[in-house]
Structures are given as C-alpha cells and as structure tokens.
Specification:
Layout: H1 5-22, H2 26-35, H3 39-52, H4 57-69, H5 77-86, H6 91-103, H7 107-122, H8 129-145, H9 149-162, H10 167-179, H11 183-196, H12 201-213, H13 217-230, H14 235-247, H15 251-264, H16 269-282, H17 285-297, H18 303-315, H19 319-332, H20 337-349, H21 353-366, H22 371-383, H23 387-400, H24 405-418, H25 421-434, H26 439-451, H27 455-471
Length: 472
C-alpha cells in the first residue's frame, strides 16, 4: 500500500477542513446573492434563514436592505422592529429603524420610536451621551417644525440635563418657555444658572425682566442690585435699574442712576435726556431744563431732539417753557407744520388766545394751502368776534374746496353777523345754485332777501322750491 491509513485519514480530514474554510456559509451565501442583485432570492433566503435562526442581527439588517433594494421599504420595518424589541437599546439597529421609518414617510411612528430608543439608551449602565444628544436634538427640531410644544419642551428638558456644560440647550429651553409664557419654569432654570455663574449679567437682566413683566418691580430691582454689587460700573444693569425706578416711580434714585450712567458714558446723549426728564419729574425744574438744553445743544439741527425736550417740558406742565422752546424750533424749522400746531396748543392751554392766533396766522402765511390750520384760525377769529378778518380766510377755504356745502353756509352766516346782508344774499344764492335741495340755504336766502326788502325775489325762490318739491 502506497499510503498508510494515517496519511489517508489526514488527507480526508484536510479536504473536509479546506471545504469548510473555502465554501461560504449559508449567511455569507445570502450576502453574496444580495450583492449580485438577485433581490427576490436574497429576500427569500434571509427570510428562511431568520426562521431557522431568529433574531440574527446581520441577517435582519440584510433582509431590511434587500427589501429596500427591491423597492418595498415598508416591509423592512417589521423585521427591524421585531429584532429591536428583542434586543432593546441596540443603537445600530435603532438608528437603522429610525432612518427607515423616516424614508418610508412614517413620521409619527418615527417620532414615537425616537422616544423609545432614547429611553432605552438612558437605561444602559454606560449611556451613550453623544447619541442621546443627537436624538434629543432631532426630537426638538422635529417637534418645533410640527409646532408640538410639549414634545419640544420634553426634548429640551432632557438635553439640559444630559448635555451638562453645554449652555445652548438650556438657553433654547428658556427661550421656548418664555415664548410659551411658562415664566415660573423659566425662572427656575435661570436662577439655577445664576447660582452657578452670578456674574452672568445677561441671565440676571432676563430674570429681572421676567419679574418686571409679572409686576414685581421691587423683586426685579433686588436682582439687579445683587449684580451691581459685583460690578458697580455695569452700564446694562444700571440702565435697567434706572428704568425700573422710573416706572415704580422713585425719581430720586432714578436721577442718581442716570447721573452715574452719564458719567460712565459721557458721550452718550440719551443719558442726558433721561437725566433731564427725571429731574423734571423730581421737581428740580431749573437743573432739569439746564440738562435738557445741554442735550439739545449737542445736536441743534436734529428735529427729534427738539421734540424730546418739548414733550418733556409739556409733560412736566411747564407750558411756558415748552412754548418758548417751540418758538425756537419754528425759527430753525419754519416749514414744520407740527411745530406751529404744537405751539398753538401750548398757547391755548396757557389761555393766550392772541398768541395762538398769531401762531396760526404765521402758519397760513407760510403755507397758504394748509386747510386744517386756516380753518382752526377762522374758528378762533370767530370766537373773538373778529369777523372782518374771517372773510378773506373763508374765501381761500372755499376756493380750495368748492364743493364743501358747510363752508359757504358759514360764510353766509358770517356776512349776516357783520350786517352785510347783500353779501349774504350772494353767498346763499351761490349755495342754492350748487345744492338746489339744501333747505337751510333756501331758508337763509329767503331770510336775507326779506331783510334787504326784496320780497318778490324771496317769494319767487320759495315758489320755485315748492314747485320742485311738489313734482318730487
């Protein structure tokens, strides 16, 4: 015999081992089928393989991919979901299943599964923090796009707890809570942040604003004062506190804060303006007016500054000062209609009718087509019984609005008051021609004709009117 029995036995064993090594396993053959593009066979193969080897991770993922390649992605959801329920917390399978649900349009199921996956991952002894942050961030963005406030809040709460030092998630949560009006919960997170970082002045100011919004201004002041003790030169905190003192109001302390601010930022004109206003409110008129004048002197060609000073003086009931300032304003801006109107108002409040009339006369000379102020001037002249001066103004008003029936009637009454009934007849005749059905104009025309002895004409007017009325 050429070979011994041992050699033959070893040869056979070698052949068996070689075949075992070289011939692909059943699972590998399935992967080869899928790569070759034989989708139906690979689906059938992996389905059969999973029946014999249930919960095989690789085969489950391969079957899901085969379903997708075959254009049947919705059928891939069930095997992946079944495997995940068997091995809950498996991050790779969970991600694949979540992505598959999104691709197949199962958005609601994907949102629900994301929460289940996040919960399972949190139960692990070593939880994957980065993966959880990604999942909760996606959950927040998805809930925001769907306007699902409760889910967005839930995601941000988990992010705020998990992310630790990352303040962005806590800030997003605070913004969301403030937008939804959940001020108490927002205050809780902000106060936690302040306890960790007391020099975080942005958060401190936000806490003060929330207390202010809730109507608790004294509490807001105390929050700001704690920050000012840490940094007495903080412009932002001093500015907020000064505003609160102005609202309480506590003008003495507001003045002190605005003084400090004007020293810290001497080039900022708004602090001078606020200081002047506060001094006026406090009753220190002389100093307040001096401060406001220095504020105005820095930019005398800016209209807004003039108005800031004028309104401050008016609000403080210093109308004489306001009127003097308005006179200066009109000298600088002679074509500004609002300046004349405000000055006329101040003189009216001061009961200086002559000055009010002169102001409006200046205005209509400057702007002859200013209907509103010319009409106001006429009304004032009528009140003062300066009838002769009114005639020319009424003629201008009628020329501007010839179809306004009230203007001619007023002019006719005016002529009657002046005793010029001939002129009244002319005006009322013109009114009747333009508005033949105006009963008041007819009555006044008949009255005026009677007064000047033209009874025949008066009867003719009445007969014509009654005949027209009869036909109607």
């Amino acid at each position: 015999m050429i070979f011994t029995r041992l050699e033959v036995l070893l040869y056979l064993l070698g052949m068996i081992v070689g075949a075992w090594v070289l011939y692909p396993s059943e699972y590998t053959r399935g992967l080869m089928l899928r790569k070759q593009g034989d989708r139906s066979e690979s689906i059938a193969f992996f389905g059969d393989y999973l029946r014999r080897n249930p919960h095989h991770k690789g085969a489950t993922l391969a079957l899901a991919e085969a379903f997708e390649d075959a254009g049947r992605p919705e059928e891939a959801v069930l095997p992946l979901e079944s495997f995940y329920m068997h091995r809950r917390g498996d991050l790779e399978t969970g991600r694949e299943l979540l992505a598959l649900m999104k691709r197949t349009g199962l958005q609601a199921r994907a949102a629900q599964f994301r929460w289940r996956l996040s919960h399972d991952l949190e139960q692990k002894p070593l939880r994957p923090t980065r993966a959880l942050i990604t999942l909760y961030t996606d959950a927040y963005q998805d809930a925001t796009s769907r306007q699902d406030y409760e889910s967005a809040k839930r995601a941000l709460l988990r992010l705020a707890e998990i992310s630790g030092e990352n303040e962005a998630h806590r800030e997003n949560l605070v913004r969301l809570l403030l937008a939804r009006g959940e001020l108490k919960v927002a205050l809780k997170f902000l106060n936690e942040k302040l306890s960790e970082a007391p020099r975080d002045f942005d958060s401190r100011r936000l806490v003060a604003r929330i207390h202010r919004y809730q109507g608790n201004r004294l509490k807001a002041v105390s929050v700001l004062e704690a920050g000012i003790q840490l940094d007495p030169r903080s412009v932002a905190l001093l500015s907020d506190r000064a505003t609160l003192y102005s609202e309480i109001p506590n003008w003495e302390r507001a003045v002190a804060d605005f003084r400090t601010l004007s020293k810290l930022q001497p080039r900022r004109d708004s602090w001078l303006q606020e200081l002047g206003l506060a001094l006026l409110k406090l009753g220190q008129f002389k100093e307040g007016i001096e401060v406001l004048n220095s504020y105005l002197a820095r930019a005398p060609n800016v209209k807004k500054r003039w108005w800031n000073v004028i309104y401050a003086l008016d609000d403080a009931k210093r109308r004489d000062r306001a009127a003097a300032k308005l006179e200066g304003y009109i000298r600088n801006f002679p074509d500004d209609r609002e300046g004349y109107e405000m000055l006329a108002f101040e003189y009216h409040e001061l009961a200086r009718t002559d000055a009010e009339i002169k102001t409006l006369q200046k205005r209509v000379r400057r702007a002859p087509r200013d209907f509103k102020n010319r009409k106001g001037l006429v009304e004032l002249l009528m009140q003062e019984e300066r009838y002769d001066e009114c005639v020319s103004h009424y003629n201008v008003l009628i020329a501007q609005r010839p179809n306004d029936p009230k203007l001619r009637m007023s002019l006719g009454y005016l002529h009657g008051l002046r005793g010029d009934r001939e002129a009244a007849v002319v005006v009322f005749e013109d009114q009747v021609k333009r508005f033949p059905n105006d009963k008041r104009a007819i009555d006044k025309l008949v009255w005026a004709l009677n007064k000047i002895g033209r009874r025949d004409k008066a009867i003719q007017v009445l007969s014509k009117h009654l005949g027209r009325k009869q036909k109607t």
